[in-house]
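User: Please run a holo structure prediction.
Assistant: Happy to. Please share the sequence and the ligand.
User: Here you go; the ligand is iron/sulfur cluster.
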Amino acid sequence: MAVKLNEDKALVAKIKEGLKARGGYCPCRIAKTEDYKCICKEFREQIADESFEGYCHCMLYYKTKD
Ligand code: SF4
């Protein structure tokens, strides 16, 4: 299992900018709750899920199974 940044550097820069502007909360969601603080609950659960492979909701990160 590995978690990597998206290979699209322009997109990574944009999401990171959004995260910074929102004080570390997910730029792809409206609510500023603990569940949406990066790394958000949804992606933490996807990381823990052995069958999951793919991007987080914002596509900042990509998780591989092996
Ligand atoms: S892991 Fe991805 S979807 Fe979750 S808060 Fe961070 S950027 Fe947003």
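Residues 46 and 52 are 6 Å apart (CA to CA).
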